Amino acid sequence: MNLLLIIAGGLSALAALLHLGCIYFGAPWYRFFGAGERMAALASQGSSWPTLITLGIASMLGIWSLYAFSAAGVIGRLPLLRTCLILIGCIYLIRGIGGFYFVTMPMGRSSGFWIWSSGICLTLGLCHLLGLKQQWALLS
């Protein structure tokens, strides 16, 4: 069992659940978690667009969680494990680094949203990639 990958899987799963919470609890949660006023307004108007986008994100995060748990040895081995974990780690890192660019021009979100979410994404990316490095030989 690999602690970094278990942490990465747990945090990705938590993020997926929080996204599902936004769907269930609606506009107040979209606002609180920084999705922007446009998404919150669409959710309060009953538009399906926020739900579809958020379901897509939650599904992706859930799958990423499963890949981290698989590499950690918590669940069975998933296909293309190394390749997927490299991609997942890199996507988290790119999102984390890229998000800091938007602090000065937040595009409908707060600067705080970009700082916090970028920090979280950087942490998740590092957990995935460092955990994968530790498990690399076991995943051949």
Give an account of the 3D structure.
This protein has 140 residues and is an all-alpha fold. The protein has one domain (3-139). 76% of the residues lie in helices and 0% in strands. The chain contains 6 helices and no strands. The protein starts with a helix and ends in a 5-residue tail after the last helix. Keywords: Membrane, Transmembrane, Transmembrane helix. The chain crosses the membrane at residues 49-68, 80-101, 113-132.
Provide a compact summary of the structure.
By secondary structure, the protein is mainly α. Helices cover 76% and strands 0% of the residues.
Total individual domains: 1
How many beta strands in the DSSP annotation? 0
Mean pLDDT: 95
Order of helices and strands: HHHHHH
Q: Low-confidence parts, pLDDT < 50 over ≥5 residues?
A: none
Q: Approximately how much helix is present in the residues?
A: over 70%
Layout of strands and helices, then pairs:
Elements: H1 3-25, H2 27-32, H3 37-44, H4 49-72, H5 81-101, H6 111-135
Helix pairs in contact: 1-4, 1-6, 4-5, 5-6
